[in-house]
Structures are given as C-alpha cells and as structure tokens.
Amino acid sequence: MGINSYRNVRRLSWMIVSLAWLLAGCTGDGSGPVQKEGTAATASAKADPSAAAAPPSAAAKPAELRTDQVLDNSKYAGQLTIRYFYLPGENLSGDSFLIQSPDGKTMLVDAGLPEAGSHVVAYLKKLGISSLDIALNTHPHIDHIGGYATIAREIGIKQFYMENLPYPQSSAYTKAIAALDAKDVPKKTLEEGDTFQLGDSVRFEVLNPVKGTLPDAVKTFSAPEINDHSMVLRMTYGERTFLFTADIYKHRETELLSSPWQSKLKADMMDIPHHGSESTSSSTGFLKAVSPQIAIMSQNVFQSPNLKERLEKLDAKVYSTGLHGNILLHSDGKTIEVVTEKDWEPPSKPRAK
What we know:
Layout: H1 3-27, E1 41-43, H2 56-59, H3 67-70, E2 80-84, E3 97-100, E4 106-109, H4 117-126, E5 131-132, E6 134-136, H5 142-145, H6 148-154, E7 156-157, E8 160-162, H7 171-182, E9 187-189, E10 195-198, E11 202-208, H8 223-228, E12 232-237, E13 240-244, H9 250-257, E14 269-271, H10 284-290, E15 294-297, H11 305-313, E16 317-320, H12 321-324, E17 327-331, E18 336-340
Parallel strand pairs: 4-6, 5-7, 6-8, 8-9, 13-14, 14-15, 15-16
Antiparallel strand pairs: 1-18, 2-3, 2-17, 3-4, 10-11, 11-12, 12-13, 17-18
C-alpha cells in the first residue's frame, strides 16, 4: 500500500471512531425516572423499566421544532397540562406559564415583562384560549406582572389572584392593575394557608407569604423583600405533586424548611426559584427537601449550568426555556410527561491529544 493510500485509510478510520464516540456521548443511557428531553419524559412513583433510550441514529437527525405539538390543546384534552412559555428577548424576559385542568379550566401564572405580554397573548390564541378562568400574579415585580397590561386588554379574565402588596411606585404594576380595572376583573388576595381549586380535580395550597404579614412586612420595596414574600404554591393532581416557588430567596427557603409547611415541600415537579439564580436562591437544603424528579427553569436566557448539574446529581431531569424553548408537562394523575419545543445536547468535549 502506498503512503498516500495508507494516510487516506488512517484518516477514514479516525473519522469513523470519532463519529462513534460523538454518537455515544450524545445518546446517554436513558436510565432513571425521566427519559431524554423532547420525547415523553416521565416521572412516576416508580421508574418505568421499559423506558429505553433513543437509538443512536436518533441523535444524528437534524433538530426538529415541536412547537405545534407543545401548543396543541386538543391532543392533551382530559389531562392536566402545564405550559412554560418561552418569552423572547436579549435579556431575561420574566416568567409566564399556563395550567389547564383535565376539565378545561385555565390559570395563567405571571405574565413576564410588559413587552412579553403580546407573546403570551399569541400563545394563548394559538391554544384557542380567549378567556382565562384565573390569572395569578405571584408578586408585583415588572418581570412577573408587566405583561398583564396587554393580556387584560386582549384576553378575558374571570378572576385575578394576587398578594396583598400594592406597589404604586411601579408603573408596570399600576398599568396592569388599571387594565384589569378597566375590564372590571374581580381581584382576590391570597396568603399562607389559603386553598383553591382549578376545575374539579386540581388543588392548590398557598405556602407563602406568611399569613397576616403583608403589606406591612415590605417596608423598602427592595428586591429581597418583595421576592421573599412572593407566592409559593403547591399543586396536587391525583398522585402527583408540583411546587411553584416564584422568586423566593435562600433566606425564605430556610424559613420554609422549619415552618409548618416543611412536609408540603416534597414534590414530583419543581419550578426552580428566581429563574434559576444560584446567587440568590436554590440552597442545597431546600433542593434536597423538595427532591424533584422534574425541575423547570423559566429563563429565556440560560444562565445556570452549575445549578443544572447540582439538580442532576439529585436525580432530577432539568429543563430550561432558554435551552428547550416552550415546555409542556402533561399528567394523568399517575405520571408526568414532558415534551419540549426543541432538543438540547451539551457541547461535545474535545478529544484529548
């Protein structure tokens, strides 16, 4: 064999080995309670041994967007659904997600920045939703209440749930409340110990803010003050539990661990506090107490690789709107399955020389 032929064969061999290594690294072993993102990722009381990893060839296919599947309202009729909306923007655009009960009742939780309101309206209209049974605001920061000014003008709202925390210093707050008042939307304040239903079978318990503390507990309207008093919700449907933590900081996480609600923190699915900000939230003790199988970071710009690793070490399957786009969770009360708008794989590590 000539030198050139030998070099060509050797180069081809290295290409085959590299391709095999890359495919093996991307597919993973598929073990654990939740499958590969973008497929039906399942959380249940026991891991399903029949849940197999996708074949290696699946990892090599071009990326496909599943926008229509995630926003298909008829496909998941009769199930509980939660849709985390991707809110576009160069910087963090806030938080907004829709919960729909098996009997079709709807609740929107938060609305993102003012400029995100039109995007939320577009998502709702694509889902065929022209009226919300409940719109809820976890706290009056601009990236949670701002979009309601637009949503209230475009979408019917039967009832608005909020904290007893007026924030007249914020133009985003005053514009949202004005838009709600213009449509005569009834408002109700919630605090620790309150419960309510969405439809016949989805139950909510309010774990924060502490009963009787608002509005007097917030004196300076600093970010820590407002965020620590944001609304924490525990949702139960059938055998499955969900914890929505809004923007609480580590200080409030620690207090909840020693509160009467400590036993209520364990959940199958967790909305990670404060958009995945590790500097303010997600203390180790709190994450271990919740010990979720599924963790959602509502952050259009992914900024939490270390937190993602910490959660994965606790055996949680982690999803971020910044990595996966719109995210759908659907449940029959026994399992929770996840469908993402797009797949995400970690960058391949360079080969050692």
